[in-house]
Amino acid sequence: MAADGGSSSLGLPCVFSPKSRQYLALCAQDGRLRIWNTDSKTLHQEYVPSAHLSATCTCIAWGPCRTVKEGPQRKKRKSEAGQPEERADLLAMGTAAGSVLIYSTAKGALHCTLDGGHSGGVNSVQWHPEDSLLYSGSADTHIIEWDLQTGKTRCKWKADRAAVTSLCVSPDGKLLLSAGHIIKMWDLETKEIYRKFTGHSTAVRTLRFATTRPPDSNGLYFLSGAEHDRLLSVWQVREDGNDKNSVVSFTLTDEPQHIDLSTSTSKEEAVRLAVVCKDGQLHLFEHFLNGPCKKPLSPSCSVQMAGTQDSPVPVPLLAAALGTDTGTVLLAYGNHLQPVMERVEINTAERHICLTRDVQTTLSLSMETAVSKVKTPIVNAKSRVLVPGLPGHQAPIKGTSQGSEKRKKGTDTKEMSIEERLGEIDLSTVSSVKGAPKGTPSLQTDNFAVLLVQGLESSDAGILNKVFQTRKDAVIKKTVSRLPLPAVLPLVEEITKRLQGHPFTAVLMVRWLKAVLMHHTSYLSSLPDLVTQLGVLYHMIESRVRMFHKLTKLHGKLYLLMTQVATSDSSNTVTDVDHTAKLVYEEESSDEDEASGDEGLPDDNSDNWEEEEVMEETMEQDMEGQADEEEEDQDSRTESKANGEEDMEHENESEEE
Amino acid sequence: MASFKPTKIQVYPKLGEKVTQDTLYWKNYKAPVQIKEFGAVTNIDFSPVAPHNYAVTAFTRIHIYGPFSQEPVKSFTRFKDTAYCGRFRSDGQLLVAGCEDSVVRLFDVSGKVALRMFKGHTKAVRVTDFTSDRYHILTGSDDYTCRLWDIPNSTELTSYQEHTDYIRCGITSKLNRDLFITGSYDHTLKLFDARVNKSVMTMDHGQPVESLLLYPSEGLLVSAGGRYVKVWDLLKGGQPLVSLKNHHKTVTCLCLSSNGQRLLSASLDRHVKVYNTTNYKVVHNFDYAASILSLGLAPDDESIVVGMTNGILSIKHRKSSEETKEISGQQKRRPAYRVFVKGKNYVPKQDDYLVSKPVKQHLAKYDKQLKRFNVSKALDTALETWTRFRKPEITVAVIKELDRRGTLKNALAGRDERGLSQLLNFLVGNLVDPRFAPVLVPATEMILDIYQSVIGQSPVVDVQLQRLQDLLEREIGYQQDLLEVLGMLDTMAKMNTSPLTPHPPT
C-alpha cells in the first residue's frame, strides 16, 4: 500500500502513480504539471497552476488508489468503460507559496486548493492510506493534517525547530514520520511523539516505510535518505526503545532522488529497493531486514544509461519503479520536459549494466518525435489541458489528450488567425492609400490624435515628428477632427513653427493647417483674440507669398530653358552620337558631387532627410528617363568627355572676354 | 582718404529654439554616468551634510553613493523584500527605510544592521521621514495609516487613519517638529499636527498623489499626481495656486533646485521638466531613455541623479568652470597681456602734441576683394563652402552689395562648370528662404540670362538646374496652398467680430 511512487522534494518532483504505474506525474522547470501515460508513452494531461511561476510546485504525491465509485464528486464515465479496478486519481501538489493543490486526473482539472495553512513553502505532502486525510510539512516548521472532505485544516502542530523536509505515513495509518534533521515518529491518534531518531546531519529528504509489520513486533523498519548524503539508512523501531542507531545502510553513488521499494510483509520476504541517485544512476538492492548489519551494503545491480552519439553522453534517469515480477523495472529518463518511459528487463546477475538509448537532446526535436509516436491513446474524452493566461485555477481549454497531433493543429489555426489579422491590416492600409471609400481604420487615427496631444503637451519632438510625417489625407483629417479643443491652439503654434522650413516638408504642414482650419472653424472664429492668436501665422504666410509672382516668373523661365534642353537632347540622340555619350558618363560623377552637396545643406528643418529622399527619387527618375533614351556603347565615352570639357572651357573664356 | 565701408551683413531673426540663460545653465552638464541597479530605482535622497552622499533605493537594497564615485560606498541589503524610501536624517547620521514586509528599519549610516525596527504597520511601508526634532519618524503605509514613532524607545506614538487609500508620499516640515503632510491615492493631501489627533487641513489634488514637496519657506506645497503638478498656498488654508500639465504621463517625482528658483518634475513619459517658480513656465526639458521613477538634485545643482524603471541610475555632473576654460585655452594661445598694453599706458603730458595713429581697418576676405574691385573673386570667397552652409546671410549680403554696385552680372559671369554648380547649389539651398528670396530671385534670373547658351552642355549644371526647377515647382505649389490658407484666415477673421487688419496678399 505504501508503494505509491517515491516523492522527492529534491530537484524536480517526479512520481509514478501507485499500483499499476499507469501514469508518471512530473513537474518540470517551467512549473507545469505533466502527467504521462506510461503505457502509450504519451502526454496524458498537462496542468498549469495559475501561479506556476511564482509558487512553483515543490512536491507531488498521488492519492491512494480508490475504486472509482468511492469518489463522490467524480463523474462515473470511466467505470462504465468497464474498468472496475482501482485507479489513482487525485494528486496533491505542494507549492513554494505554502498552498497545496489537489488535482484530479479524472476530471482533468483542479479539484480543490488547500491554503491558508502554511506560512512557508510546503516541503512534503503525504496521503493517509485510508481516511481522506492529507499531511503536509512545511518550511514554517509545522505539520498540518488536512481534511479533504471539508478542505479545512483538521490539526496543525509544530513538529521541529527547523523546517520539516520530509513526511511519511505508516502503511497502517497509525504512525507518521516527519523529519528535519531529526526523524520523529508521531502517534497520529494523539499527535504525540512516539520515537525520535537522530543520526543525519543534513536535512532528511526521503522517508519510507520498508515493512508493513506492526511496531510492537520489532519488525517495523523504515528508510531515510538525507541531503548530500550518499547513504540510505534503515532504522528499526524496536519495542524496547533501543533504536538509537540505524541498523543497516545502503551505499549509493550520490544523493538519492527517487526511491521505489517493494515492502516485505514477513521476515522471510526480502525488501527490493530501486534508488535513482542525483547523478542519474539507478541502484537496485535486495535485502532481508532482520536485524542490524554493520557493513554498509552495496547495490546488487547498478544501471546507467548513455546516448548513442559518437561520444556517448550519460542520459540521466529520472525515476524508476519496480515491476511486479522481479526482473522488470519501469524507467523514466531524459529531461523533465519530455521524459521517455520504458519497461526494461534487468539481468540482476550482472553488477553493472549500461543501457544505450537514442534520446533527442534538443527540446523541439523531442516534441516532434513525440508526435510521431502517437497512436490513438486509450483515454481521452475527459482529459483537458489548462493553459496560463486564463484566470483562476479551473480554466480548462480544449483537451489535447488525443495526442500532440491535435495540439499542433490548434497552434496551426492560431497562426492562421494571426495571418488573417495581418492580412486585414494590410488591406485597410491599402484602401486608405487609395482614397479609402471604406474609411480608414479608426484605430490608427485615434492613436495619432492621442499621440499628437501627448506630444503637444510635453513638446516632445520625437512624437511630433512621428505624427507630422503622415502623408495620408484621411489620417490627417481624422486626427485633427478627434483632437480635443484645448489642443488646437498649441497645434496651430507648432504648425506655424514648422511652416517656416523647406517647401518639401512645409507642404505637409499646410495639409495639417488646412485640416485644422476646416475642422475647427467654428471654434477658432469664436475665439475673441483670434487676431492675436493667428497674427504670427498670418504675417509669416504673407511674407512668404510676397515673392510668389517673381518666383512663378522665374520658374517659367527655367521651365522653358529646361524643355529646350530636353528637346535638343532628344533630337541629338538621334543624330549626334558623341553628345549623348557624354551625358551617360558624367552622370556618375555628378551623382557623387551632388550627394556631397546635399549633406551640407543648411538645416532648416529637422525633417531634412525627407527632402533628400524626395530629391533622390526625382534624380533617379531623371536618370532612368535619360538612360532609356540612350542606347550607347561604352567605347566612345572617354573621348566624348574630353571633347565636352574642351567645349565648355572655350565658351567660358569667350564670355569672360 | 575715404575709408572703405565694409559690406553690411543683415541680421535676421533666428528660427528655432531660443537660447536662454536657463538652457545654457541646464545644458552645462557632462555626459551622464549610468549605473545598473538590481531593479527599478524608486527613491533617491541626498544627504544634507557634506560630502552630500546620496541613498539610492532600488529593489531590496539601498546603496549610498559618494558625490563622484560610481561604486556604492555603502550598501544596506538586510531587507526581506523590496525596500522603499531610504531617507537621511538632517544630520546625515541615520537613514530610515520602509519595506514591502511592513517593517520600518532605521540604520546607522556607518553600520550595517538595523538599529531599530518599527513593527506595527500591516502592509508595505512606502513613506518614511524624520521629523525636524530628529527624534521621531513619520511613516505612511499601504494599510491607509500614517504613524509617528519614537526613535529611542522604538514605540509607536500616534496613528492616523484618515486616508482611504494607499499613502504613497509624505513629507515633514523642516521648521516645525509637529507638522507633516501626506499624500494618498485617495486623491487628497492631508496636513497633520502631531499635537492634535486628526488632520488640520485637507486638499483635493484630483488625482492619486505620487509626490510632495515643500518650499524652503514652507508656505507653498507642491504636489504631483496623475499628469498634474499643483502648487498650494498653505498659509491661505490650502488654496490652489497653480496647476501645471506639461507631461503626458503620470508625474512621479518633484525636486527643487537648490536656490529655490526652479522646480523640476520627472514623469513616466521620460521627461524631466524645469519650471521657473515665478511664472511656472517650462524653461528646460531633459529627455531620458526610460520612464523615470525618482529624481534627486545635489546641493548647488552639482549633479542630477535620475532613477528609471529599467533599473538604470543616471548621474549627470555639472561641468566645472575650470574645465570649460581649459578647453578654450588649449584651442587658442593668445598673445601675452603685455603685447596689448605696450605703449598704451603712456599718459600724454600737458603740452604734448598728439598725433593719432590711423586705425587699421580689419576687413573680411570678401571685403578685401571688393575693395580691389575683384567682384568675381569677392563672390567666390563668399561662396566658400563654410560660409555657404553656415552663414548664408554673408553670401546673400555680398550678392546684394554687388547688385547695388551694378556689377553682379560681371561677378556671376565667366564661371566654369564647378563654379556654376556651386552657385546653383547655393541657390537651391536658399532661394526659397523668404529672408533671402528678394535678393536671390533677381540673381537667379541673371544667371539664367548669362548661361542660357550653355545650358544642356554640362550634365552637372543640368542636374542642378533640374533640382532648382523642381524646388521652384514645389515652392510655387506650396505658396499656392498658403494663399488658399490666407483666404481661409481672411474669412475666419471676417467671421470673427474684429477682422484682421492686414491687406489681402498681393
From TrEMBL, chain A:
| Coiled-coil residue spans | none
Superkingdom of this protein's organism = Eukaryota
Tell me the InterPro entries matching this sequence: SSU_processome_Utp12, U3_snoRNA-assoc_WDR, WD40/YVTN_repeat-like_dom_sf, WD40_repeat_dom_sf, WD40_rpt
Q: Which SUPFAM superfamilies match?
A: WD40 repeat-like
Biased segments, Basic and acidic residues type: 635-644
A Pfam family assignment = WD40
* Entry keyword set: Nucleus, WD repeat
Q: Which SMART domains match?
A: WD40
Composition-biased stretches, type Acidic residues, lie in 586-634, 645-657
Q: Where is this region: Disordered?
A: 390-414, 586-657
Where does the record say this protein resides?
A: Nucleus
Residue stretches making up the Small-subunit processome Utp12 domain: 460-561
Q: Where are the WD repeats?
A: 115-156
Q: Which GO terms describe its cellular component?
A: nucleolus
PANTHER family associated with the record: WD REPEAT-CONTAINING PROTEIN 43
Family note: Belongs to the UTP5 family.
Protein's recorded name: WD repeat domain 43
The organism encoding this protein is Myripristis murdjan
TrEMBL record, chain B:
PROSITE patterns recorded: WD_REPEATS_1, WD_REPEATS_2, WD_REPEATS_REGION
Domain of life according to the entry: Eukaryota
WD repeat ranges, renumbered to this chain? 118-159, 244-285
Q: What does the entry give for GO biological process?
A: positive regulation of transcription by RNA polymerase I; rRNA processing
Q: Which InterPro entries does UniProt cross-reference here?
A: U3_snoRNA-assocProt_15_C, WD40/YVTN_repeat-like_dom_sf, WD40_repeat_CS, WD40_repeat_dom_sf, WD40_rpt
Q: Where in the cell is it found?
A: Nucleus, Nucleolus
Record bears the keyword DNA repair = no
| All residue ranges annotated as the U3 small nucleolar RNA-associated protein 15 C-terminal domain in the record | 345-491
* Keywords of this entry: Nucleus, Repeat, rRNA processing, WD repeat
**Where, if anywhere, are coiled coils annotated?**
none
Q: Which Pfam families match?
A: UTP15_C (PF09384), WD40 (PF00400)
What GO cellular component is one of the record's annotations?
nucleolus
Please explain the role this protein plays, according to its UniProt record.
Ribosome biogenesis factor. Involved in nucleolar processing of pre-18S ribosomal RNA. Required for optimal pre-ribosomal RNA transcription by RNA polymerase I. Part of the small subunit (SSU) processome, first precursor of the small eukaryotic ribosomal subunit. During the assembly of the SSU processome in the nucleolus, many ribosome biogenesis factors, an RNA chaperone and ribosomal proteins associate with the nascent pre-rRNA and work in concert to generate RNA folding, modifications, rearrangements and cleavage as well as targeted degradation of pre-ribosomal RNA by the RNA exosome.
Summarize subunit and interaction data from the UniProt record for this chain: Part of the small subunit (SSU) processome, composed of more than 70 proteins and the RNA chaperone small nucleolar RNA (snoRNA) U3. May be a component of the proposed t-UTP subcomplex of the ribosomal small subunit (SSU) processome.
The name this protein carries in UniProt is U3 small nucleolar RNA-associated protein 15 homolog
